[in-house]
Amino acid sequence: MTEIAVVAISVAKPGYEEQLREAAEGIVGPTRKEQGALQYDLHRDVQEPRRFVFVERWESQEALAAHAKSAHIAAYKKAVADWVEHAEIRVLSKIA
């Protein structure tokens, strides 16, 4: 197994910061219980409070793929679709 790291960034549209924060907080608990989840932490950018960042670690690419297909992630994406100005997901492999 090769551990996978993910940085997922969402920038809220102006005025939707708190809705996005609450929705993002709501998926932390269920995701941490997923098989293969090693780390799933939500952060808010200090200098740009509309920017929310998930820092994730997964046991494998397969665990990450299962997470992406989970019901709570599908519901989250649907709920926040109109609140997000920009989203970016980076999947990383550790080299040092």
UniProtKB/TrEMBL annotation:
Domain of life from the UniProt record: Bacteria
Annotated ABM domain residues: 4-92
Gene3D superfamilies, alphabetized: 3.30.70.100
Single Gene Ontology MF annotation: catalytic activity
Annotated protein name in UniProt: ABM domain-containing protein
Lineage of source species: Bacteria, Pseudomonadati, Pseudomonadota, Betaproteobacteria, Burkholderiales
